[in-house]
Amino acid sequence: MADIIRLLPEYLANQIAAGEVVQRPASVVKELLENSVDAGSTSVTLIIKDAGKQLIQVVDDGLGMTETDARMCFERHATSKIKTTEDLFRIKTMGFRGEAMASIAAVAQVELKTRARGAELGTCLTIEGNEVLKQEPVAMAQGTVVSVKNLFFNVPARRNFLKTNPVEMRHILDEFQRVALANPEIAFALYQNEVEVMNLPAGKLSQRIVSIFGKEYKEQMAACEETTPFLTVKGYIGKPEYAKKSRGEQFFFVNNRFIKSQYLNHAVLTAFEGLLPKDSFPFYVLFLEIAPETIDINVHPTKTEIKFEDEKTVYAIVRAAVKQSLGLHNIAPSLDFGADVNYMPLQPMKFPASMDFEMAPAQAPKASSPMNTPASFSSRASGGGGQHQERDTPPTREVSRANTEEHSHLFPEEEDSFAPAKNTMTGGSKTLQVHQKYLMVQVKSGLMVVDQQAAQERILYEKYSQALGKRTGASQQLLFPQTLQLSPADFSLVMELTEEFTALGFVFNDFGSNTLVVNGIPAEIPLRDEKELIEGLLEQYKNNLSALKVDRQENLARAMAKRVASRLTGRLSDQEMNALVDRLFGCQVPNYTPSGQKTLVILQTEQLQDLFLRN
């Protein structure tokens, strides 16, 4: 039998490696920026054309490379960062694998210009598909210029797999932002299609945060610092009242390397427990300094995953640091350890003697105003006109109306709780709202309970799906236009979805510097905090991207329905309750929300009888 195992050619091995290292233009940006940081640069400029598909260029003033090093940096597993196995466990640089430049050169046309410190001339190297086309001396300033052109030119399937320009640009902005945050002592600039997007001068971390996210962050930041022999935590957290409905402004850096860690994120959220509004996420930029030998960053080629030798201790220190910062800035309530701990025992509630809530004997309803029960709800929902009328069984006991009226001033929020519903539904049924969350409707087979918010979500989803399909969304103009400043990534996402937003009924203009001026929002949405609405919508859309495989319009319709439904809560009038139930049963799928949550539950009469142990 002939030998069949053979060594792969170098160019093919590099293309395979590129599949892990270079997934999209943002991957190239990350590797090149980190190389510039490792080179000791004081100024780095990133130039992007066509969202990185046409050109990604990084210019720095770092150490530069000699002629030999310039050639060697494109070889696989060639690196200046480590030499021995021991070095692998003491890594302090961003790169160390020696794969990035070889992988990039395998799938793009690359030009490298570099000049080492002290050298009179630099070197210009041109590579295409891992093949060196030319190498020649060049006059240039000290530092390095790497130009990556026509990414995936020789892998058309990968190039076709790339998303639209706004999507790819959003990923590039994310990578640029992370590297810039990690290195505030370095000046960074970003140009897209010859337009300056960001210009970040060197300075302190607080100045870098304000430069990236906006001036309003100056007020919301609270310093966070904790030093222990095992771990040092430094950085800033946002005050709870400035928490946003969208994720994306939570950053962890371990030894200046950006990482993703749900475990540490949970530590921060636990420290904020009880301080954040529902479904809100605090801003934070936290740097962890820890001995390199106690962590393992050699987990994934992207190097954003990390393993700690002692995870629980890291969790505890991070949580304590955030809690301490919240306490120092008078954000969290502090404990008064000097107070008397011998608390008074709880006493039973005492009412005035007159409030004995006498039970009146049962009274049958008057014949002139019978209390009717509806026919089967399904027949009403489908348009049937059957109106079965039965006399309701009178209650066995009822609260004395004289007593409730006499003492209604003591319980103003419960003034209507003892009063029976006065209105009846079209089909003869009566709807009752419970805790401003649920609607109870009597049906022929028993009792139907409708989740008010879930019902709104189903109704709105079908409405917005239709509006997106037909481009017929109606708008309501704002009396005073609202200015909304977004993160670069969220602004890019809004620009990507401009057509869909307009179809839903949003009216806005680009005001520059990642800022929108909102002039109108979809009709029938309560006019309350348009900024929170859009931020929440973007967050829900991004959450759906990671959890669902649906198209853009479907995703946006789901996100919009969920966010708007969360606003349509509170007390409803009888007419509003009846209309809500009618609209729900006018939907194509009334029983479930788009995400599969039940909108209603029917309790059979037999089930109700079982609750009271009746035969």
TrEMBL record:
Domain DNA mismatch repair protein S5, chain residue ranges per copy: 209-327
Upper taxonomic lineage: Bacteria, Pseudomonadati, Bacteroidota, Cytophagia, Cytophagales
Chain's role: This protein is involved in the repair of mismatches in DNA. It is required for dam-dependent methyl-directed DNA mismatch repair. May act as a 'molecular matchmaker', a protein that promotes the formation of a stable complex between two or more DNA-binding proteins in an ATP-dependent manner without itself being part of a final effector complex.
Basic and acidic residues biased stretches: 388-412
InterPro entries: DNA_mismatch_repair_MutL, DNA_mismatch_S5_2-like, HATPase_C_sf, MutL/Mlh/PMS, MutL/Mlh/Pms-like, MutL_C, MutL_C_dimsub, MutL_C_regsub
GO cellular component: a single term: mismatch repair complex
Protein name per UniProt: DNA mismatch repair protein MutL
Stored HAMAP family: DNA_mis_repair (MF_00149)
Species this chain originates from: Rufibacter glacialis
Coiled coil: 531-558
Domain MutL C-terminal dimerisation: 430-572
A GO BP entry: mismatch repair
Residue span of region Disordered: 362-427
One annotated GO molecular function: ATP-dependent DNA damage sensor activity
Annotated keywords: Coiled coil, DNA damage, DNA repair, Endonuclease, Hydrolase, Nuclease
Entry similarity comment: Belongs to the DNA mismatch repair MutL/HexB family.
Gene name tied to this protein: mutL
